[in-house]
Amino acid sequence: MNIKTRKEFPDFVAFVSDVDLKDDLTVEQVKKIDDAINKFSVLVFKNQNINDEQQVRFTKYFGEIEASGNKSNITKASDRRLSTDLADVSNLDKNNKPFTQNDPRRIFNLGNRLWHTDSSFKKIPAKYSLLSARNISKEGGNTEFADMRSAYDNLDTKIKDKVESMICEHSLIYSRQRLGFDMTQELSSDEIKNFTPVEQPLVRTNKSTNRKTIFLSCHIGKIRGWIRPDSMCFIDDLIEYATQSRFKYDHQWSQNDLVIWDNRQTMHRARAFDDLKENRDMRRTTVLGEEKLL
Ligand SMILES: [Fe+2]
Questions:
Q1: Which range marks the domain in which residue 186 is found?
Q2: Which end of the chain offers a freer environment for a tag, N or C, measured as fewer CB atoms within 10 Å?
Q3: How deeply is 202 buried, as exposed, middle or buried, from its count of CB atoms within 10 A (0-12, 13-18, 19+)?
Q4: Residue 115 — pLDDT band, cuts 50, 70, 90?
Q5: Which residues face 112 on adjacent strands?
Q6: Residue 258 falls within a domain, yes or no?
């Protein structure tokens, strides 16, 4: 197995080759990959023609799988295209047809175009995400990643002091409000309970490396003790700062790429493509986090 970086980002994003994710991996190989995730935050594996079962098996080398269900999406169980081991990050319904423009599931999924961290709205937020490109769009549909360790390191000292003990509320309701999609209107009072905001610290430490990161996400809608409009202005300024090109990697997908990212150390967003016409079939498995942060 080979792990290579590029000179523009010596400690962010690495390309892993000479490993077939369909094979059984040795303890040493798993450790090498896990260490590389901690070190580089984003790992790219090319030409990995895997199916769902193989993706799930590979994911389990790194921990327990976070089930995808009614707490992370508005798709009903009967409308799911994939098993609950996988999050469907495609633009497709269960007949493999693109969602129509006004389909609430499409509008909900547009939230992936905003800078976020997967499952930051859960009491135990996600650790790693593994995204497999089964079918890509002809144009667009890139995924951008931003390094929240470098963003933290380069913060102005005054802002570092200000954010050190900040606590933020995260919910899918907040990120979808940014799109003009009001989940409180779209869902029943019972369904909306699945999306109750969860508090998370704004600064966290990766215990494996002892590096601090800014735990940012468009799911943040409020800072504890602040009013919402002030919270939004502050968080939006911070997201704008943390996603400058010096902290950012733009991944242009090829068929059968598999990308792993560390949600403790990065933010990401999907870019636009012709989603009403093209089939972009992307399947994500998620490694459950190991602890509550508060
Ligand atoms: Fe995501």
A1: 2-286
A2: C
A3: buried
A4: very high
A5: none
A6: yes
Q: How far apart are CA 41 and CA 222, in angstroms?
A: 27
Distance 163 CA to ligand 1 centre (A): 24
Segment 106-126 mean pLDDT: 96
d(CA 61, CA 65): 10
Tally of domains in the chain? 1
DSSP 100: P
pLDDT at 159 over 90: yes
Ion ligand 1: residues, CB within 5 A, are 118
Q: Would residue 292 count as lying in a domain?
A: no
Reduce the DSSP state of residue 168 to 3 states and report it.
strand
CATH of the domain at 118: 3.60.130.10
Q: What is the pLDDT of residues 53-86, one digit of tens each?
A: 999 999 999 999 999 987 888 898 999 999 999 9
CA distance 178 to 269: 14
On whether the CB atoms of residues 219 and 229 are closer than 8 A, the answer is no
Task: Say how many Å lie between the CA of residue 94 and the centre of ligand 1.
Answer: 20
Q: Considering the domain boundaries, does residue 79 fall inside one?
A: yes
Query: 269 CA to middle of ligand 1, Å?
Result: 6
Tell whether 47 is covered by a domain.
Answer: yes
- At 195-227, the pLDDT tens digits run 999 999 999 999 999 999 999 999 999 999 999
Q: How far, in Å, is the centroid of ligand 1 from the Cα of 145?
A: 10
